[in-house]
Design brief:
2 domains; 60% helix
Length: 472
């Protein structure tokens, strides 16, 4: 019996209590974890225009002639999120709710994956709880991005492989890749398992060939599904889009480093000493001798970040299960899991609790309602921060964002301007654009109201400058 099982840090009762507290965190921080995140409007707008037109285009953030305006992946994601919002309403809150649901489902799959890999019930429960509440996963649950959905598909891909349902695993792998290229991480999970168990895996003889064939059959159906959704797919277009995406950020050190150094570093900084300590204890105690899967899984996950190297900190969610397995395994073996679990619980309580109390009065739905009420219903174009799109989704809208630097070239004669100065630092061209508006239009104030605390939102009518008639 292991030290972990003797200590029993998680009984069934404590697990249920933990789930209840985690659920409370999801409820309290719903639409408050991020006061503003550009990707929320970015992805919901793409969903909306897909459901309206059947086209997968980046309407808001790319010019009409931009080579990456037409998207190459994501129809499955658009279908799932789009239909959900068609039924329940086109709101940011509903999209985040669906992401949260997918994160809870992912936690179930990773609990089951840990069990299938031969780990104890307590180990597996700890993995499941970690997937629900650690920042890398919680972040995905609090955004409208496809990360939570693709993370679920990759977890299900690995689960089906461990269950030896190889055709389903192959099919789910292609579906996850179609939803987002980061779905490829499902293949890295499988690769880690094969490398760690290669002796028994390759000793199966003819059965190995059958298993590979069954996986490829499922992948073949997945490929047919992909080409059915994207009959215009070409590798030339893929290379073009990948090149553009790679050039969107000049950070050269990958998304693992980005995760610990990005704007929200304070949410993750405590994880770094825990990880360093785990690596030290792993080497000191030569723990690779007891379970080869743990170091292989961790190593493959880290190396995969160089393959999918775009430095987007949100991508950390896809490989973080390997970090969780590594940490839990090390602290279990060294008898520190119970103490560390309590320390992490306190840290998360402080982190999430402080965030809630700092932003408890923030009400995004009220802001959108008041913004929409302040806009005259005359069909004029609206320009504002990306989140303002939720108040103007049924009319022409342009976001104030650095990739949308072509607004002055559009020759818009008259429009409504929404100023959100309290989040202006999130757009590099915000102040330059406001200055351009005042230099080229008569900017007439229409409405000013409070967002939250002392943060103000202002709505203006930008009209052509009236020149005084010259006398004879």
């Amino acid at each position: 019996m292991t030290t972990l099982e003797q200590e029993r840090p998680f009984t069934s009762r404590s697990t249920l209590l933990s789930l209840a507290i985690i659920l409370l965190a999801y409820v309290l921080l719903h639409m408050k974890y991020y006061i503003y995140y550009v990707d929320d409007a970015w992805f919901v707008s793409e969903n909306y225009y897909y459901c309206q037109t059947g086209k997968i285009e980046d309407v808001l953030f790319r010019a009409v002639d931009a080579p990456d305006r037409v998207l190459l992946f994501g129809k499955t994601y658009f279908q799932v999120y789009g239909n959900f919002m068609e039924w329940f309403g086109w709101t940011k809150g509903n999209a985040i709710l669906l992401s949260s649901i997918f994160t809870w489902l992912s936690a179930w799959f990773w609990w089951r994956n840990a069990k299938l890999l031969g780990f104890s019930e307590v180990f597996s429960r700890t993995v499941g709880l970690s997937v629900l509440i650690l920042p890398a996963f919680f972040n995905a649950a609090m955004l409208t991005r496809p990360d939570a959905f693709v993370f679920l598909l990759s977890a299900a891909t690995f689960w089906a492989f461990l269950k030896k349902i190889y055709p389903l695993s192959g099919f789910l792998f292609l579906v996850s890749v179609e939803s987002h290229l980061m779905g490829i991480t499902g293949a890295f999970f499988i690769l880690a398992y094969v490398l760690a168990t290669w002796r028994s895996f390759f000793d199966e003889g003819w059965k190995l060939s059958l298993h590979v064939l069954l996986f490829l059959v499922g992948a073949g159906f997945g490929a047919c599904y992909f080409y059915w959704l994207h009959p215009d797919f070409t590798f030339e277009r893929l290379n073009t889009i990948l090149s553009i995406k790679m050039g969107m950020n000049d950070f050269k050190y990958g998304y693992i480093v980005k995760y610990f150094t990005q704007q929200f570093w304070y949410r993750h900084v405590w994880e770094l000493p825990v990880l360093i300590t785990a690596i030290y204890l792993f080497i000191k105690n030569r723990l690779w001798k007891d379970n080869l899967f743990i170091p292989v899984f961790f190593t493959v996950a880290v190396l995969s970040s160089f393959v999918t190297s775009r430095p987007n900190a949100n991508y950390m969610v896809f490989i973080y299960p390997a970090f969780v397995f590594f940490g839990i395994y090390v602290f279990e073996k060294t008898g520190w899991l119970k103490k560390l679990s309590n320390i992490v619980a306190v840290l998360l309580l402080v982190l999430y609790g402080a965030h809630y109390f700092a932003h408890r009065t923030y009400d995004f739905n009220r802001i959108i309602t008041e913004t929409k009420a302040a806009l005259p219903q005359d069909g004029l174009t609206v320009i504002g921060m990306p989140d303002n799109w939720f108040a103007a989704m049924d009319r022409p809208f342009h976001p104030i964002y650095h990739s949308v630097d072509y607004i002055p070239e559009l020759g818009i004669k008259e429009f409504y301007l929404i100023r959100n100065d309290y989040i202006s630092q999130r757009s590099r061209n915000y102040h330059d654009f406001i200055a351009w508006c005042h230099a080229n239009y008569e900017v007439v104030p229409l409405k000013k109201f409070n967002a939250y605390k002392d943060k103000q939102i202002e709505v203006f009518h930008c009209k052509p400058i009236q020149t005084a008639p010259q006398g004879n």
